[in-house]
Amino acid sequence: MKNLFPEDKNLTPVEVNQSEYLINGELRTWKGDTHPVLSPICTNIDGEIKQKQIGYYPLLTKEEALNALESAVNAYDHGRGEWPLMSVSERIGHIKMFLNKMREKRDEVIKILMWEIGKSLNDSAKEFDRTVDYILDTIEALKNLDRVSSRFTIENGIAAQIRRSPLGVTLCMGPYNYPLNETFTTLIPALIMGNTVVFKPAKFGALLHRPLLEAFRDSFPKGVINTIYGRGREVVTPIMESGKINVLAFIGTSTAANNIKKSHPYPNRLRSVLGLEAKNAAIVLPDSDIESTVKECVAGSLSYNGQRCTALKMLFVHTDIIDTFIEKFTAQVDNLKAGMPWDESVNITPLPDMNTLEYMQDLVMDANEKGASVINRRGAETAGTLFFPAVIYPAKPDMRIYNEEQFGPVVPIIPFTNIDDPIEYIINSEYGQQVSLFGNDPDNLAHLIDPLVNQVCRVNINSQCQRGPDTFPFTGRKNSAEGTLSVSDALRVFSIRTLVAGKTTEQNKSILTDITKENRSKFLSTDFIF
Questions:
Q1: What is the DSSP string of 460-490?
Q2: Strands 431-432 and 477-478, bridge-based pairing
Q3: Phi-psi region of 225 (alpha: psi -120 to 50; beta: other; left: phi over 0)
Q4: Are 85 and 522 in contact (CB under 8 A)?
Q5: Which listed residue, 283, 301, 518, 523, has the most CB atoms within 10 A of its CB?
Q6: Would residue 304 be called left, alpha or beta, if left means φ above 0 and alpha means ψ between -120 and 50 degrees?
Q7: CB–CB of 433/457 below 8 Å?
Q8: ∠ at Cα 481 (246, 231), nearest 5°?
Q9: What are the respective helix, strand and coil percentages of the chain, to the nearest 5?
Q10: Domain boundary assignment for the chain
């Protein structure tokens, strides 16, 4: 695969040398240490394959992190700040302003996505466009939520209006695999519900937010959103230790999430919204449609190199069809196109860095030493940061691949005869996000659905595991998630129900009528948002 890497002289890569960071409504210039950003895309320089440096970002210190926090704290001002006191329609106006400015940066963000995390051109464009759609759907969902709240409820002689209020200062930290979309599935709901935000981009996927800094600055009151860059122990730990963070929105590993949460001195006051690991399994029954099942399993396990929390990371296949399944599955895997993100119809692109590639190799070596083989012809071929998918068979409980979330292009297959074996695997797993069932007998599928919905949060029938549509709940059990994200659920998770209530005396009726008719309150209002 070495010849897949382009000659350096033939490339025009992005270059983002970032020294700016956003605090208190101003872009400040950093003159200290920076972190070089090496692209997953290697270049061929006189036969030597090396990762291309495409820029750098600031390595801020504790001082800048605490300044960002203080800016968010002041902007919230115990709920008395301009942003939390705005009406829903006013906050929607600011989000729309940001969205318009964001759309202007589409091509720039897509190009950086390709170069910074190795995502294909098609998938990078999809991520940007899906994020735009998510913001629009969030606006509509908030309108619907507010319409339901724009009336009074009278019970037992007490009149009340029940609405949702912000929680306070939110720390948002997104993942590297969907650094725009998944970050914004927490960032936008947090903002639109009236919270102020400190935002730290992922280590891989930091530069793509640079084109949006001006949009954030110009679209929101000062201090409403602030950005920090650097090492977690330097900039995240002091923020959490302050006790001033009210909400932690984090997408990453459970180990990292637990360490961050432990830093907070008042855990009972911290709401956590977490998207964590998964080890989603597919269970392929003997009566499944082999052709469609193989197609779904290939896409489910290897889309974007398998670097998705929703990827199929363990395939249980019944022994009656294991030979046919393996033959067709490995053939389709070997036919996947490896190359650069801009190559037409590319399937396999470079991994984020050499450490990730070496981890894939370690998993394969461990499986080989314990009795499994790489059964596809091109499996585990490498060049630079490219790693061609390796199909491992038969995977066994003593192998690392059996329990560890590989988060990359290694696909373990386990044969089974007794359906209790895959069920027990899911029960005993540390994770509980989703499962995919492949079969045609309604009775058999129903028999599996009922126990599995109490182990995972989504059971997919004859289809791969996935997050969308964004209107569906997205969450997990055990170490896979905390809180539920969907367009409507996210609005609720970043807010709390609050009400104004009073006895229905003539005096109170007159007061409430006057307040609502004269629009004296942003909270207590019967305005209907169209």
A1: EESS-----STTS-B--EETTEES-BSHHHH
A2: antiparallel
A3: beta
A4: yes
A5: 301
A6: left
A7: yes
A8: 60
A9: 40, 25, 35
A10: 22-29+72-275, 280-470
The pLDDT score that the predictor gives to residue 48 is 82
pLDDT in tens, 99-115: 999 999 999 999 999 99
Q: What is the pLDDT of residue 528?
A: 83
Do residues 25 and 221 lie in contact, with contact meaning Cβ atoms separated by under 8 Å?
A: yes
Helices (H) then strands (E): counts for the chain: 17, 25
- Which amino acid does the sequence have at 16? V
Yes or no: say if 74 and 223 are a contact pair by the CB < 8 Å rule: yes
Residue 518 DSSP class: T
pLDDT, residue 173, reads 97
Residues of the chain with pLDDT below 50 are: none
CA dihedral 141→147→149→155, nearest 10 degrees, is -130
Q: Which tokens in the block code for residue 97?
A: 């302003």
What six digits make up the tokens of 339? 């190359």
Do the Cβ atoms of 37 and 56 come closer than 8 Å? yes
Question: What are the residues whose beta carbons fall under 8 Å from the beta carbon of 333, sequence distance 6 or more?
Answer: 298, 302, 376, 378, 379, 389, 391, 411
Structure tokens at 21: 């960071």
State which H helix or E strand residue 147 sits in: helix 121-149
Q: How far apart are CA 84 and CA 160, in angstroms?
A: 21
Residue linked to tokens 């099942």: 293
Distance CA 20, CA 25 (A): 12
Is it true that 22-29+72-275 and 280-470 share their CATH fold?
no
Amino acid letter, residue 391: V
Residue 168's φ and ψ, nearest 5 degrees, are 140, -135
State the CB neighbour count (10 A cutoff) for residue 490.
26
| pLDDT tens digits, 230-286 | 999 999 999 999 999 999 999 999 999 999 999 999 999 999 999 999 999 999 999
pLDDT of residue 2: 67
Residue 368 main-chain phi, psi, to 5 deg: -60, -45
Select from 137, 99, 125 the least CA-distant residue to 468. Answer: 137
Instruction: Using alpha carbons, select from 294, 365, 288, 278 the residue that is nearest to residue 335.
Output: 294
Contact 150, 525 (CB under 8 A): yes
N residues, the chain? 530
Buried residues in 219-249 as b, exposed as e (16+ CB within 10 A): bbebbbbbbbbbebebbbbbbbebebbbbbb
Cβ atoms 191, 95 nearer than 8 A? yes
Classify 22-29+72-275 by CATH class.
Answer: alpha beta
The pLDDT assigned to 527 comes to 86
Cα–chain center distance at 94: 23
- Phi and psi at residue 78, to the nearest 5°: 55, 35
Amino acid code (one letter) for 188: I
End-to-end CA distance of the chain: 55
What is the pLDDT at residue 9?
Answer: 61
Helix (H) or strand (E) holding 232: helix 232-241
Q: Does the domain spanning 280-470 belong to CATH 3.90.850.10? A: no
